[in-house]
Amino acid sequence: MIERLLSAHPFGPDVREALSALLRQSTGGVVEPLEDDAPDHGVWAGWIADQVGRPWAETSFLWAESYFFRKLLAATGFFAPGPWRGVDPFAPMKRAELHNAATDETLKALDELPHLSAADRDAAVVQAAVWGNQADLAFQLSTDASGATSGLVAGSPEEFWSLFGEPGAVHLVADNSAGELAADLVLVDRLLTTGRADHVVLHVKPNPYYVSDATPSDVLEVLNHLTGTSGEAGDIGRRVQESLRAGEIAVRSHPFFCAPGDFSEMPDDLRADFASAAVTIFKGDLNYRRLVGDRHWPATRPFDEAVSYFPGPLAALRVLKSEVVVGLSAGTVSSLDEGEEPWRTKGSHALIQTSGQRSSPR
Ligand SMILES: O=P(O)(O)OC[C@@]1(O)O[C@H](CO)[C@@H](O)[C@@H]1O
Q1: Which end of the chain has the least Cβ crowding within 10 Å, N or C?
Q2: How close is the Cα of 254 to the center of ligand 1, in Å?
Q3: Which residue, by CA, sits nearest to atom 12 of ligand 1?
Q4: What segments bear the compositional bias annotation Polar residues (predicted)?
Q5: What's the sign of the alpha-carbon dihedral 57, 58, 60, 66?
Q6: Residue of 248, 245, 304, 274 whose CA lies nearest to 171
Q7: ipTM
């Protein structure tokens, strides 16, 4: 990743040396404190206090990944006065993903939506939101992901839609930008146009993170791309734009979305926000790890039990890219384990899991 950044940007010697130092520290050294005075310095000081001085190799995977991205941003000059202030170092990669053939195809495929029955359209937008999570640049950089799809290991679009009742606030905790965010906006549009949501809160990352994670400016970039596209994608983009203007969609970026901890440790203001939602939708692998706890749980641990701390109904839509998984049936686990594929980590399997089901689904 550091090599990609060095070749993507004309960074001067200071930034190049800071990135090389981060590479040395994170691959063989100890955790060093933050040296910047960015606005999130204070909150990070609390998250790193008991880790400073420890070898990186002894920190937890989730903690190390998050801190790595925070240090990387500081190393590129993101928080310092100067030419790189506020420059998203991953922007060229995200832009390439937004303008590639696979995203074009996804957007073109939306032209089929108006010809589908309401039930098929519901199913199609959920499937697109789930499988949109395959496009993830951090994962592509660290694996030989093939893009093959093998199917859902749990849940169904029907289970997802049965969470919704009277119109209410729906929160969507987004993951990657580009094609995945485009699919998420299609889902948001469906929630609003079918009256399942009276308004939607879209949660994105406050800063560039995990290469392709969506930030507020990515929301605008993807929306501009949609509105500049012909056909259904353009129509959806324009409706989403109007919903933003009307306050039916709000975009938020709480600092905790870049925190190195599980959602069970979320701060009170974020908990209160989720408690006010009729349904909260969590997208992607990292949000799933943080939602159920980034641990080697038995795969058959009930999903409801893993998220029992969460203050409301929720759905997780995720492609499996890491070993963490719960809520599977014993039969599913044994048949997947019998196969050759590393099904938990290959990015070829996905899931839809829900908790807090209404007693009489609409
Ligand atoms: O949250 P996403 O985008 O679905 O996936 C992110 C992710 O797969 O990328 C990292 C590197 O492979 C993993 O640690 C992490 O879970």
Answers
A1: C
A2: 19
A3: 139
A4: 351-362
A5: negative
A6: 274
A7: 0.94
List the structure tokens of 106.
């996804």
If you measure from the C-alpha of residue 321 to the centroid of ligand 1, how many angstroms do you get, rounded to a whole number? 6
pLDDT for 349 = 95
Residue ranges lining ligand 1, Cβ < 6 Å = 65, 133, 136, 138-139, 142, 175-176, 210, 284-286, 289, 321-322
Ligand 1 center to 139 CA (angstroms): 5
Q: What is the pLDDT of residue 361?
A: 43
pLDDT of residue 135: 75
Place of tokens 């209160």: 272
Nearest CA to ligand 1 atom 3: 136
Q: How far is the CA of 231 from the centre of ligand 1 (A)?
A: 32
Cβ contact 127:161 at 8 Å: no
| Low pLDDT (below 70) residues in the chain | 136-149, 358-362
Task: Assess contact for 295 and 62: CB atoms under 8 A.
Answer: no
Q: How far is Cα 298 from Cα 217, in angstroms, rounded to an integer?
A: 38
> What residue spans define the domains of the chain?
2-89, 93-355
Q: Smallest Cα–Cα separation from 153: which of 283, 342, 348?
A: 348
Q: Which tokens go with 110? A: 């939306």
